Amino acid sequence: MKVGLTFALGSLFLAAPHLTRAQGEGLQIPKSIAAGDGFSIQSAGNGKATLYIVGPNQVLERAIERGGTAFFAPGALQNAGHYLVVLKADDSAAKGEFDVVAANKPSELSFFARPSRLPIGLHDGITGAVYIFDAYKNLITAPAPVSFELSTPSGAKQTHVVVTRNGAAFTEMDSTAQQGSDKFVARVGDIASTRVVGQVPGDPCGIKMTAQPSGQQIRLETAPLRDCSGNAVPDGTIVTFTETYGETQTTVDVPLKRGIAQVDMPAHNGATLSAASGVVLGNQIHWEKQ
Amino acid sequence: MRKFLITLCVLGSATARYATAQPDVRIEPPANVEGPRVLEEQTATAVVRDYLQSWHSMSAALQQNDADLLDMDFAGTARDKLAETVQEQARLGLSAHYLDRAHDIQIVFISPDGLSIELTDRVEYDVQIFDHDKPVTSQHMRTRYTVVLTPAEARWKVRVFQGQI
Fold first, then answer.
1. B1 band by pLDDT with thresholds 50, 70 and 90
2. CA separation (Å) from A221 to A35, A185, A264, B25?
3. Residue range B11-37: average pLDDT?
4. How confident is the model over A56-102, as pLDDT tens digits?
5. In this predicted model, what pLDDT tens digit does every residue of A142-153 receive, in sequence order?
6. Which tens digits make up the pLDDT trace of B117-139?
7. Is the pTM of this model over 0.90?
8. B95 lies within 8 A of chain A by CB
9. What phi and psi values does residue A220 have, to the nearest 5 degrees?
10. In terms of Cα–Cα distance, which of A127, A128, A133, A135 is closest to A111?
11. What is the location of CATH 2.60.40.10 in chain A?
């Protein structure tokens, strides 16, 4: 009778070969389960035995009676991995293997966005990468679409949809023409992760300098500096003023203040005055006594 | 690319020379690496070297039930899960000896910032299980591992360590 019952139950499992497989001596174990799912392992024979489920990421041990079904409640095995199953009795040992795979439902994104601050107008200047994890912090390796969205304060958006491979996906975005704090969002299903990317003005598009007498000196002053998209260049940006007179050259570095840079330099008749910031050169002025 | 392969071959043959117990290591050319960054050969060599070392750390930790042995090569979730296994093994009186026999490694992803690298490894290993120091079983196993590593102070550490056939 017991043989007949075992055979009948074995046939039941064999009817769904993608779910279960027979391994070892009379062990019926799942081929794979999703992390956190309940499962059962059926054994043949009779008498007491110890069931071991062993992997690097988790281990279970249970005393059972052979010839029955050992049920494992949901949550018993949470960590994805490949597991060895051993049913050990005094007189025998049966073995099998099965997988615990990540649950398909994403629960957590590891989202790496760089840089946190960059100049406007850079092609592929912003990068984002994600790894997708389930509720048990298992990497979901099944392909899944990830939506990357970069939005400016004015509402303009760039969106890229990328399908993960081996649990990872990445994208590259252009920084926009407008300065400000953009939101960079990675989304999978109803899970989202947001980073803020500061976009700052680029180098000045040009420098226009004026000169006028200031007592015994010359006062040099730039017009408000803007980048090539019209954004004000931030205060603190260094403007270098240079006065060349004969064999003498005088250089002064001045930070922008309220958008302009201003300095007083010695008034030498015939001197050449110039201004520069980074790689941008401004106009030159040849000073003649007025 | 050629130079890269030579470097990795040197790594593999050097590994094989040290001792017969060392696993065979095969490294697939990183032809289809996902990500915008170019994989530098020095980086690839370091990643593979540190990953292979992590197997030794894991094996020692699970054999001696000492989670501190994981610290050099594992971080984050991978370390947490392995450490929980160590604790549970100790509670049950179990220990496991993992001996990696062969690795077939392919680097599959480099994040754009270069701060995480993912590889897959078709690994063959033997595992021996002991219950209160009595052998329970030994088994030769083949598994495809998915591994994510990130750089730490002086080496790459494993942050995701997940096997599946």
1. very low
2. 68, 42, 9, 67
3. 65
4. 999 999 999 999 999 999 999 999 999 999 999 987 889 999 999 99
5. 999 999 999 988
6. 999 999 999 999 999 999 999 99
7. no
8. no
9. -100, 140
10. A128
11. 2-101, 209-286
What is the average pLDDT across B132-155? 95
Which residues of chain A have a CB within 8 Å of the CB of B135? none
Interface confidence, given as ipTM, is 0.88
Q: What share of chain B is helix, strand, coil (3-state, %, to 5)?
A: 40, 40, 25
**CATH number belonging to domain A108-200:** 2.60.40.1930
Confidence check: pLDDT of A6 > 70 = no
Name every residue whose Cβ is closer than 8 Å to that of residue A151 and which is 6 or more positions away in sequence: A157, A158, A182, A183, A185
B94 Cβ under 8 Å from any chain A Cβ: yes
Q: Identify the residue among A146, A166, A173, A174 best suited for mutation to test binding to B, counting B beta carbons within 10 A and taking the highest.
A: A166
Region(s) of chain A under CATH 2.60.40.1930: 108-200
Determine the Cα–Cα distance for residues B1 and A196; give it in Å rounded to an integer.
Answer: 37
Q: Chain A: nearest CA to B48, how far in angstroms?
A: 18
Domain that holds residue B47: 2-164
Q: What is the CATH T-level fold of the domain A209-286, as seen in this structure?
A: Immunoglobulin-like (2.60.40)
Q: Which residues of A touch B85 (CB under 8 A)?
A: 55-59
pLDDT at B12 over 60: no
Q: Compute the nearest-CA separation of A273 from chain B (Å).
A: 43
Nearest by CB: B113 against A102, A114, A165: A114
CATH number at residue B41: 3.10.450.50
The alpha carbon of residue A59 is apart from the nearest alpha carbon of chain B, in Å, by 6
Spatial distance between the Cα atoms of A92 and A96, rounded to a whole number of angstroms: 14
Taking domain A2-101, whether its CATH number is 3.20.20.140 is answered by no
Q: Are the CB atoms for B101 and B71 separated by under 8 Å? A: no
Q: Give the total number of structural domains in chain B.
A: 1
CB contact under 8 A, B84 and A58: yes
